[in-house]
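Consider the tokenized backbone below.
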């Protein structure tokens, strides 16, 4: 059973985040889905919360056809009745499932853009608070999710929440050290999530690019930092980096 394998994998992992790609792949194969996403709620200065992408997996057979998950800002939620209701349902731990054709507003347009036919998501709680959501998508056909499939997703969401709560005890100290190094660094440091949204922007980056951290967090790197005349090349280059250029990821590079 997929849930059993995933729970065991998370419990034995030294770093649960490094396991998420494999966890989502196992989950999607078991449920015959083409996409699996772990969303995380992040607080952005002066902007409320944003739903960012902690990890996601796309079936390689559909990789060229399916868009990356969307980062949803609080301002979008506040202007869309369905998203407002969904945000409240997530805080209550309710399942969100159905077909894209039955949706309206922002979500319908967004799901259609991503070729999603059917969706299923459950809340992930950690330390007594809503941490994010775990979702799977069927991009081939409309389907009715079974009780067993819903239970599987719930079990894995619980296991992820448990793994978050039982991360190494020095995690907080590591975060303090990391943030101090970011603030003190003379190098411009920009961190983006897998959807291309900026989640960290240090003082040196503010000085170099002319953006304030508070105004740029949550925005797309391509639409802000990258000059307009380089955007097409950057977009195709990002596709390359996810494939043959993967060995360059995680390395320090000098650009001119």
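A designed sequence for it:
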């Amino acid at each position: 059973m997929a849930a059993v394998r995933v729970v065991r994998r998370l419990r034995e992992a030294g770093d649960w985040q490094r396991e998420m790609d494999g966890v989502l792949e196992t989950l999607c194969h078991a449920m015959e889905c083409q996409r699996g996403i772990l969303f995380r709620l992040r607080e952005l200065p002066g902007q409320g919360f944003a739903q960012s992408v902690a990890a996601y997996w796309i079936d390689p057979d559909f990789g060229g056809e399916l868009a990356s998950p969307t980062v949803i800002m609080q301002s979008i939620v506040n202007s869309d009745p369905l998203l407002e209701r969904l945000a409240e349902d997530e805080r209550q731990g309710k399942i969100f499932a159905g077909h894209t054709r039955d949706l309206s507003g922002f979500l319908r347009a967004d799901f259609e853009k991503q070729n999603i036919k059917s969706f299923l998501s459950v809340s992930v709680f950690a330390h007594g608070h809503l941490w994010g959501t775990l979702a799977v998508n069927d991009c081939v056909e409309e389907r009715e999710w079974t009780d067993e499939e819903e239970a599987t997703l719930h079990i894995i969401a619980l296991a992820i929440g448990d793994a978050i709560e039982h991360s190494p005890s020095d995690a907080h100290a590591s975060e303090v050290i990391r943030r101090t190094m970011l603030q003190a660094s003379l190098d411009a440091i920009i961190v983006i999530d897998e959807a291309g949204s900026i989640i960290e922007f240090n003082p040196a980056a503010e000085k170099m690019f002319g953006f304030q951290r508070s105004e740029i967090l949550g925005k797309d790197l391509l639409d802000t930092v990258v000059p307009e005349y380089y955007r097409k090349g950057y977009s195709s280059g990002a596709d390359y980096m996810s494939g043959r250029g993967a060995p360059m990821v995680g390395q320090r590079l000098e650009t001119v």
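The mean pLDDT is 83.
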